[in-house]
Amino acid sequence: MKHFFHRVNETLSVFCGWLMLAMIILLVIDVCSRNVGKPIQGMAELSVFVMMIMIYLGMARCEEHKEHVNLEIVKDALPPRMQRAVGLFAYVLALISIGIFFYAVLQDAVASYRSREALAGVVELRLWPVKAVMVVGVAIFWIQALINAIEAIKASRMDFQRDSSNA
Questions:
Q1: Residue pLDDT tens, the chain, 167 long
Q2: CA distance 55 to 78
Q3: Interatomic CA distance for residues 128 and 134, integer angstroms
Q4: What is the 3-state secondary structure of 79-146?
Q5: In principle, which of 60, 69, 101, 131 could form an S-S bond with 140, CB 3.0–4.6 Å?
Q6: Residue of 167, 164, 166, 145 whose CA lies nearest to 87
Q7: Which residue, 44, 6, 14, 42, is CA-closest to 27?
Q8: Alpha helix segments (H runs only) across 36-79
């Protein structure tokens, strides 16, 4: 399972790189079209949609490499056994938080789909497709956090067994 999600995260990060290029192209087209006096409606909004998709699909890869915000200065001051306990507790809190976040994003995406929510303007841009991708991104993020938590539990057990055999 870990290997499968590693490949998923890898693929999504490559896709996010291409989305970054697409977002840059959209913004350049928007700026150039405005400078020649013929703005293309919806380009700025579309680039925001692309950015949101990039952010949500990239969260799991960031979690896989443990690159999210962390209070290392506090954790590093603790003894090793306490560091492991705090790390495991942090994973429990993270899984609960991401789960609540997933539920909220899912509810919002469903409501958006049911109400046919769209950005008003000359070009009507539906919001539910972007919100659906956000749901997928958060789900993969939660699964990656669970994988990391399981790995931390395994490492903690191995350390505990090693400490027990040395005593």
A1: 888 989 999 999 999 999 999 999 999 999 999 999 888 888 888 888 999 999 999 999 999 998 877 778 888 888 988 888 888 999 999 999 999 999 999 999 999 999 999 988 777 889 999 999 999 999 999 999 999 999 999 888 877 677 667 65
A2: 33
A3: 10
A4: CHHHHHHHHHHHHHHHHHHHHHHHHHHHHHHHHHHHHCCEECCCCCEECHHHHHHHHHHHHHHHHHHH
A5: 60
A6: 145
A7: 44
A8: 43-64, 72-76
- Give the C-alpha separation, 70 to 97, whole Å: 15
Could you give the C-alpha distances from 118 to 43, 49, 129, in angstroms and in order? Answer: 15, 12, 10
Phi and psi at 104, nearest 5°, equal -65, -45
